[in-house]
């Protein structure tokens, strides 16, 4: 992936990266020495490759769950890790069909991650927490155990609409 470097006079200490128009736009302080710039570009490129690979693993897992539990009913959706999720473990945008899973779930047991993915996939079929939604997620064998695990990780009862 291409990286565009923008030297900014407003930026004093840190670098930031954002994907725009199919490339990574890296904003760095204008006075940054060339050696440091090369190092930072290398770090961001490696981080992007790692994140991209792990996102494809997440998509593969979601597609398998879709096929096994929903009969492949869900045809178009995306799923990615998100470091921004501090109070929730996942979210789903029903209209754009985008699912985001909190990066803090990378180290949980597989069945907990899968239960979270199932929860979000079910929202693509039923966008609320109705009885129909509950039936959709209850087909996952360890759903109740996963909910208990997530409660133990600090999911509040308020957010426990599992």
Q: How would you describe this structure to a colleague?
A:
The protein is α/β, with parallel strands linked by helices and 162 residues long. The protein has a domain at 53-159: Zincin-like, CATH 3.30.2010. The protein is built from four helices and six strands; from the N terminus they run βββαβββααα. The chain has helices at 34-70, 110-125, 131-137, 143-152, and strands spanning 3-8, 16-20, 23-29, 78-82, 90-93, 98-102. Strands 1-3-2 form a three-stranded mixed sheet, with helices on one face. Strands 4-6-5 form a three-stranded mixed sheet. A hairpin with a 4-residue loop joins β5 and β6. α1 crosses α2 (110-125) and α2 crosses α4 (143-152). It is elongated and about 60 Å long. The protein starts with a strand and ends in a 10-residue tail after the last helix. 18% of the residues are buried.
| Class by SSE composition | alpha/beta
N- to C-terminal distance? 38 Å
Shape: elongated
The appropriate CATH architecture of the domain at 53-159 is 2-Layer Sandwich
Q: What is the subunit organization of this protein? A: single chain
What is the number of beta strands? 6
Beta-strand content estimate: 15-25%
Overall pLDDT metric: 88
N-to-C SSE series? EEEHEEEHHH
Number of helices: 4
CATH fold description of the domain at 53-159? Zincin-like
């Amino acid at each position: 992936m291409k990286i565009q470097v923008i030297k900014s006079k407003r930026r004093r200490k840190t670098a930031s990266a954002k994907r725009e128009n199919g490339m990574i736009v890296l904003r760095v302080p204008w006075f940054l020495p060339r050696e440091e710039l090369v190092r930072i570009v290398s770090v961001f490129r490696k981080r992007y490759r790692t994140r991209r690979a792990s996102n494809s693993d997440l998509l593969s897992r979601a597609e398998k769950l879709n096929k096994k539990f929903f009969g492949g009913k869900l045809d178009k959706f995306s799923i990615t890790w998100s470091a921004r999720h501090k109070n929730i473990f996942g979210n789903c945008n029903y209209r754009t069909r985008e699912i985001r899973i909190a990066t803090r779930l990378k180290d949980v047991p597989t069945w907990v991650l899968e239960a979270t993915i199932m929860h979000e996939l079910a929202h693509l079929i039923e966008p609320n927490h109705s009885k129909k939604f509950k039936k959709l997620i209850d087909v996952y064998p360890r759903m109740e155990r996963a909910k208990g695990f997530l409660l133990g990780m600090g999911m509040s009862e308020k957010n426990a609409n599992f």
